[in-house]
Amino acid sequence: MARSPFILCIGAALCGAVVAHPAPEPRITPTPTAPAKRDLLDIPASVTSLLGSAIPSDAAGGILPAWLTMPSDDQIKKQLGLNDTSISQLPVEVMNIPGYANWTENGWNNRIHGYVYKNPPATADQLDSAAQIFVPSLDESGFTDANRAMARNVTAALITLPVQNYSLQFTLRYNAQPAANITFPLPTDDRGEYDQFVPFTSQGLIPNGNETNVVQGLELFTPAIASGNSSSYLVPPQGVTLVADIDDILRVTRIYQPADGLKNSFAMPYVPWMNMPQVLKGWEQRIQGLHFHYLTTTPIKVTQFYESFTYANYPLGSYDIRPLNLTTVEQIFQVRKVNLHRIFETFPQRKFVLLGDTSNGDIMSQYPAMATDFPGQVQCILLRNTSATDSGDHFPYDTSGFKNLDNSTYMFFRTPDDIAGLDFSKGECRNASVPQNVTFEYQGLPNILGNAAMSTQLSIPVLSLLVFSTLITLFA
């Protein structure tokens, strides 16, 4: 198979210290000051799990581990032989992320966000070669042609090129009727992204937010660009919003086993976790006005695959993702926190139910923090105890953030049936038949370190030292 020299780096700081040799046999050669790159499967799953919990980053919550970064735009152009002229001739595509709108005294205020890009031409062999970075065993007999086709599609999405300084127009439709035309107030940024709240009025076509308790849907169109079709959700000021993570709570990903996580995200069909679709659909039917909001830290470039899976299996709802243009330390390392704060601040009178799993380090710290940062708004935190149902999860998780919370406002569960009967409209958050036994400390470290006698009460500094020592061993 012909190979293409796409490069993904272990650790952003190392990207400038590796050199790609020309085709047909590209290699990554270390300079005297940089360590050699290890193959993905050479890095123990326990180490990457430990990284996700000990370092204040939610990178482990998306399909790309923290130590695996995407090729730069310049690398993509160079390795595909593209120049400015050839790129200018490619059609513009728009990916609108389903947003939410809040009601104000001046009308609806609609959050419109997404990504404008171009698809660079790449051969199947080039995409196969690039996909090998994520799924090194893709050539093996265990993968079908359909698996390889999916890997090409996901990889093609990752190598799209952003369109900067692009002006956008949108058309809104409500019940198949024209509702508003919107000129987006700013052009796209240098990563091709846009994200703003844009006010609009519909002259009586759409019910006012203070006159209904039902979430209403809008169709969002980008004129002359079919890929830009999407939805927005008009959310009334009061009611309940369910904020749900996706990986390992709505779908089987196994992020805590990096090789499996990448395989399940790049090559295998997306599969719901047990009967979670029935649980969420049951809530939708029983709880009037429930707003579903899906919050994932997956990069925006591959959001379309998550959306397709979610809407094929779960109730419709708005979306938050990991943008490309991260400009502050908080945005880089705590993008989930940024997105959570935005939606809480947008709907100060709504109650929130937060759904996730224990293998996600940022969820374990940020979900309980929301109850402190926004008193009275967090009605319930529901967390799948991943290690209780998957013996492959050796991810340490810290429950200390729950110590000062009312224990009636959170629940750790094992299977979807444990939470299926909850009625949030009645303030319910606990299934009394499910034992909790929560101790407010780190859990699971003995499984990682292979020492059953070792105390689980390790502080962040101790964990950081362990991580640092492990990295030296791996990359020296």
From TrEMBL:
Protein's recorded name: Phosphatidate phosphatase APP1 catalytic domain-containing protein
Record's signal peptide: 1-20
Phosphatidate phosphatase APP1 catalytic domain segment(s): 241-385
PANTHER family: PHOSPHATIDATE PHOSPHATASE APP1, PHOSPHATIDATE PHOSPHATASE APP1 CATALYTIC DOMAIN-CONTAINING PROTEIN
Pfam families, alphabetized: APP1_cat
Keyword field contains Signal: yes
GO MF annotation, one: phosphatidate phosphatase activity
GO cellular component terms attached to this protein's record: actin cortical patch
InterPro entries noted in UniProt: APP1_cat (IPR019236), Mg2+_PAP (IPR052935)
Entry superkingdom: Eukaryota
